[in-house]
Amino acid sequence: MNDLAIALRQDTGRHLYEQIYDYIKSEIRKGKFRVGERLPSTRSLAEFLQVSRSTAELAYGQLLSEGYIEARPYRGYFVCQVEELFDLEGGETDGLTETGGAGAGKAVNVCAGRDSGKGTPPSYFCDFSPNTIDMTAFPYATWKKITKNILVGANSEMFTYGSHKGDYALRETIARYLHTSRGVNCSPEQIIIGAGNDYLLMLLEKVLGRHVAIAMENPTYKRAYRIFESFAYRILPVAMDSSGMSAEGLRESGAEVAYVMPSHQYPMGVVMPIGRRMELLKWAGEKETRYLIEDDYDSEFRFKGKPVPSLQASDRLGKVIYIGTFSKSIAPAIRIGYMVLPMPLLKVYEEKCSFYSTTVSGIDQKILNEFIEKGHFERHLNRMRKIYRDKHDLLLSELKGMEGQFKILGANAGLHLLLQDECGRSEEALVRQAKNAGVKVYGLSEFCMEDIPPYWNGNMIILGYASLSREQICKGVGRLKQAWEDS
Questions:
Q1: Domain final position from 326, 359, 377
Q2: Judgement on whether residues 398 and 373 belong to the same structural domain of the protein
């Protein structure tokens, strides 16, 4: 963003920093500044407006405290998602005003959150979304340095299409990483690199064919469900229990392919035991056309006990299609996922899909390869495990005292927990009461393809914590306690 042409006046009786603050706030609320857009530095803005730097810093500080902008280490100030902020001057506080601080009484300090209902969207103090990650510890300086070094040494080959499967060096690195961390047995030739899981699942449709009967756990990852639905696949919901997808239900479904998340089922958090895994592998081995799609989306984040090997690690017949991504472990914007095809399907892929170009930039692949090879990825994972473990433990600690109201499920792995109501309250009521308290929570029904299976009490709430600060977790749970205890 260029410097801001703000018409400052000395005759209004208002401080200069307030005028800067009002201008930027108004432009953000009108949508004139895009979400994620970078603002000028305080030094640059001060020089352009011919004011002291402390004046610019005061204006930015006010905007920061009210959630209009965010500061990213070593990068500057960026516009936040603020469609749901609203002024409190009309007295419409909804009980959300935070006391103290320079911005008290002017606007609600909120996290980004949206409501799918009609009418004016509410303002949330915090959003317990299970679909976000913490980007505050991302190694920007390291990523920038690797990028610079690669571009300095770039040659014409780097700017060609490259292999349709992806950069071979990166596939070698991923194969080694998957073997040591997840027990996956594969060669680089079996790995296909693509721009996220969405693309890989669409590519898989070319390999498996159209109108496939596919079984999915219910509840499940709805994005995958919608993608399969767009293929005209016949989707067969299979109920799950405390061990994951029912093997008996899978047999009865008549499916040819099953989509499962054995290491940490989303959203239920179930870790599939070895016995159930063997049952699914046995089912797949009974017919040549049967396969299991293993989505190993967040296996890196396990906070208790030893890592759970992948389902593919136990596959001896080439029946598991293994899919993973770096979106959760590094950043969603990386958009690099990978798929490991068993040998029979690899032959089909070569016949039907070898003319497709890779969807990931060759430069991005080389950056990621060096990031992993030089040990930066492992250090980043260790750092994020500690950050998420601390948040996970804090959330569990704050939930103490609610044991009589809820049963806590899905702990010790992943980036969300589940609260199963024990007092007979409906999911709708719990979500509504949380909303009235300024807290966004998610009901289990949002993740179901049909009615909630009887095994899982329908009155269940999902709490994601990855992107929340410690203060937001503490205050958010405090608000939930009050809202639900008063119900």
A1: 377
A2: no
Tokens of 74: 């070593």
For strand 69-72 and strand 76-79, is the pairing parallel, antiparallel, or unpaired?
A: antiparallel
> What DSSP letter does each residue of 357-402 carry, written as one string?
PPSS-HHHHHHHHHHHHTTHHHHHHHHHHHHHHHHHHHHHHHTTT-
| Two structure tokens written together for 307 | 């890592």
Same domain membership, residue 68 and residue 146:
no
Are 210 and 234 found together in one domain? yes
Model confidence over 308-357: pLDDT tens digits?
789 999 999 999 999 999 988 998 888 899 999 999 999 999 999 988 88
Domain residues for the domain of 423 are 379-485
**Span between the terminal Cα atoms of the chain, in Å:** 48
Residue 263, burial from CB neighbour count under 10 angstroms (0-12, 13-18, 19+): buried
What's 177's domain CATH number? Answer: 3.40.640.10
Q: What is the pLDDT of residues 142-187, one digit of tens each?
A: 999 999 999 887 665 666 667 889 999 999 999 999 999 999 999 9
**Of 326, 334, 325, 338, the residue nearest 363 (C-alpha):** 334
